[in-house]
Design a protein that fits this description.
This protein is α+β, with helices and mostly antiparallel strands and 180 residues long. Helices cover 21% and strands 33% of the residues. Strand 1 (81-82) and strand 2 form a beta hairpin.
Length: 180
């Protein structure tokens, strides 16, 4: 599982095996073997990969156990990989079985009173559906109040968010290409 994630993250960032090998200080052969599950990355390797890919270390961990017929197809709620609290007040979990698709699906929880104050910008197309709660979303210079049942798209623009409301907001995101 870790190997497939490394390969998917490398591809999403348009890195060659050679470039990743240089960035990690590992051989090209070792990177290739790690991606194919023939070598097991150490914690030091995983920390380096998390830094290079700009993902939380927790991305490489989580429950992947389940019946053989479900692996790669079904993700039980209890087996979702938490991908860390990347921003204060934001908790995210991977809904996709892995990172090998052209997109990823993320479940986000925006805690009451939390906000992303500094704008972010990614070379992605993202569509979010707000399952419950309310969320203020800023795309470029525009502010939108998003309510349960609403959806929005961010396409390479600067964005930020705030949940100044009393209840948590829950959203499902589809992000292409995968960034986690």
């Amino acid at each position: 599982m870790i190997g497939r994630d490394i390969r998917a993250l490398r591809a999403a960032r348009n890195l060659t095996l050679k470039e990743l090998a240089q960035a990690t200080g590992r051989s090209l052969g070792w990177i290739s073997q790690a991606e194919r599950g023939l070598s097991q990355p150490s914690m030091k390797d995983l920390r380096a990969l998390a830094r290079i890919f700009d993902v939380p270390l927790s991305m490489f961990f989580g429950s992947t156990d389940g019946p053989e017929e479900e692996r790669g197809r079904v993700v039980r709620a209890s087996a979702r990989r938490e991908i860390g609290e990347r921003d204060e007040g934001l908790i995210e979990a991977l809904v996709s079985p892995d990172l090998t698709d052209e997109f990823e699906v993320i479940h986000s929880t925006f805690l009451p009173g939390s906000a992303l104050d500094a704008p972010k910008q990614r070379a992605t197309t993202e569509v979010a559906y707000l399952v419950s709660g309310r969320l203020d979303v800023f795309i470029g210079d525009q502010r939108f109040i998003i309510e349960a049942g609403d959806s929005f798209r961010i396409k390479g623009s600067e964005y930020r968010w705030a949940n100044p409301y009393r209840d948590p907001a829950y959203a499902i995101w589809v992000i292409s290409p995968p960034v986690y």
